[in-house]
């Protein structure tokens, strides 16, 4: 909102990352988020976000990102550019990504330790104009101005798990 930030999160986010640590610029990344499960902590707002005014989940239940270009800015900083699809509209966006490191951890399934498995951590952030994706609903605030900003900030904390060989 134009008065304060409203934080929300999609549920059931899935993705894949294929990367050679020696050649990170050749990596491939994909992600998909279930827009039908968007959560802000306020049920009426969540229902409105799922409606045709915003995500239109009846027709577009999933948002996706497919990275097409990765530029290493420094040892742990990257710019990942790709196609973001929201509400059936695809636009190019760039995420600023920070690599946090990798570590080995136990891997438990059904009470059995099948590990260790290697994990890697990242943060990613971008900003885009929601109007570019056909998300243009708004209303006028009672003291002037608009209810919803045109700009959307996306911040993600990500963990990848190396596939078992």
Strand count, sense and barrel status of the largest sheet are: 7 strands, antiparallel
Number of helices: 1
User: In order across it, which strands form the biggest sheet?
Assistant: 1-2-3-4-5-8-9
Structural class: mainly beta
Mean pLDDT: 89
Helical content stands at under 10%
Give me the Rg, rounded. 18 Å
The proportion of strand residues reads: over 45%
Q: What are the key terms here?
A:
two-stranded antiparallel ribbon, mainly beta, 165 residues, 5% helix, 9 strands, 1 helix
Q: What does it look like?
A:
With about 160 residues, this protein is mainly beta. Helices cover about 5% and strands about 55% of the residues. The protein contains 1 helix and 9 strands. The longest helix is centred in the N-terminal third of the chain and has 8 residues, at about 45-50. The model has no long low-confidence stretch (mean pLDDT about 90).
Give the gist of this structure.
With 165 residues, this protein is mainly beta.
